Amino acid sequence: MNEHRLINFLLRGYVGLVFLFIFTPILGSFVFSFNADRFPSLPLGGFSLHWYQAIASDPAVWQALRNSLKVALVVSVVSTFLGFAAAYTDFRYHFFGKSLYMALALLPPTIPVVIMGLAMLAFLSRVGLSGELHAVMISHIVMCAPFAMAVVRMRLAQMEPVLESAAWNLGASQWQAMRHVILPFTAPSLCAALFVTMAVSFDEFAVAWFVSGLNETVPVRILNTLQGQVSPTINAIGSLVFVTTTALVILAQMLLMRRRKPA
Amino acid sequence: MTLRKLQTAPSLAEVGSTPTPASRRRTQGPWYGLTFALPMLVWQLAFFVFPLAFLLTISFWVVRNFRMQPTFEWLNWSYVLSRGYFWDVYLHTLTMACGATLLISLVAFPCAYAIAFKLRTSARQLAILLLVTPFFTSYLVRTYSWQVFLSDNGILNALFGQLGIGALPMLNSSFGTFVGYFTLCLPLAVVLQLFSLMYLDRSLVEAAHNLGCGRLRTVLQVVLPSARVGVVVAALFCFILCFGDFVSPLYLGGGQPPTLSTLIADTTKAGQQWPRAAVIACMMIVTLLLVAFAAVRFAYRRRA
């Protein structure tokens, strides 16, 4: 019994270590963002809002933020629509080549981002779209729609398929059944999909870096800063982005949790 | 109960003159279904399949006078594939990705195991929530944060100094790259392994114990094989992510020697040699497809 306790204790400690590793850089960047030193070391320098003031007075950051928000808004709406439509198709229909259809819908996140970036850059510049924010939006929708689909599909899996046929039998047309049965049922997952895709788009740097040209988004701005001289403003931007995306994800989680209650 | 009642509705409807769902669907034509099936298909064909096909196409194009000329020549392929340099980089990338995959899987498994079997339900839910969080924090910011920790005058070396250990060079080495790979993949690997362990049939473990099977042997011969799909899928994702990542090798590994991804990024960003970058990208995709195919075969292979 003693040996058993010891092993359990060691395993729990091990979990703690893994979490320590995972959260060290995240918490670190928070702490450094309030640290006065340019090159933080031990002992830490004094508390300072200097880096936040630096980004607040940097027009490039504001422009990047505007670009990111524009992209994230468009991407979340379009991806959620595409994802919902595909999830509903998977839920309701059986057809020839369906597994191929699903593979096509789910594959994009598994392609390495450099390859996606290069392919999108080559293709979009050929059709005259690269270097514009549209290019970032188009690429991000490709990458985010699968996430939206997964979120909505999980919700649909909890729905009795007969609910829809019941509505038809009670005289509803297919569109009315969609409007009054499917949409209300999937509403929480639609919101969750909106937030998740927004968060993914807001964080994506590689493909955006390839196709955005001079229209930097926030992560591209970070990447370009990283390539230049070391600057703790990255921590400040990162912390703000972290708070934003976490808020979005927590909202999404709360909406998804609501499904546990009977609809 | 309400569901039961609704389920009986079709037979009632069929008795009357109301059209059955099947006939109703037929009379309304295919537009309804197509409205939902087509958008994803069209979008992914136009902006996913087509760009990738175009990537393959331009690998046969030739750059003349700093412009890409549409032709069909094997020039870039023979150029890239005949270079010893390319194969060095290829092998280096493959070795790093395989090593990282193995290490991450090994480190993740005890953690996933402990969360699945040794934590109370509430603690497990909290652990899952914490494991999902990094997915939504910027990978770039975390990388930069590691730079501060790992640099020669950084936090970790200051800590080591207080412990009386000399400054260790950690940044701009394979060690740095691996820290980046772990940052990128570890949470995902734990989550994926965890999901397969959580839904494991616990009576198997009890049966093994009752039959006198030791703890370690139970893990290796009962738990691990039953969770094989999750473990292999987690490893596959680690491989895909590490193989394609250009941030860790560049900003934590120092960029030397390059990996295939940093090579693509450099070649693309530096100039107009997109066809050569396309060849490298195609080689990467082929490698990934082979690995993914082998992994899926292995994961779903019937136990002998």
Helix-strand category of chain B: mainly alpha
Main sheet overview of chain A: none
Look at the structure and give the mean pLDDT of chain B: 85
The strand order across the widest sheet of chain B is 1-2
Name the beta content range of chain B: under 5%
Characterization of this structure:
The complex is a heterodimer of chains A (263) and B (304). By secondary structure, chain A is an all-alpha fold. Chain A has 11 helices and no strands. In chain A, helix 1 (2-33) packs across helix 11 (233-257) and helix 3 runs parallel beside helix 6. The longest helix of chain A is centred in the first third of the chain and has 34 residues, at 59-92. The termini of chain A are far apart. The model of chain A has no long low-confidence stretch (mean pLDDT 87). With 304 residues, chain B is mainly alpha-helical. Chain B contains 16 helices and 2 strands. Chain B has helices at residues 2-7, 9-15, 21-27, 31-58, 75-81, 84-118, 121-132, 139-150, 155-162, 174-198, 202-210, 215-226, 228-244, 247-252, 260-270, 274-299; strands spanning 62-64, 67-69. A two-stranded antiparallel sheet of chain B has the order 1-2. In chain B, helix 6 (84-118) packs antiparallel against helix 13, helix 10 (174-198) runs antiparallel to helix 13 and helix 13 runs antiparallel to helix 16 (274-299). Chain B is globular. At the A-B interface, helix 1, helix 3, helix 4, helix 5 and helix 6 of A face helix 1, helix 2, helix 3, helix 4 and helix 6 of B.
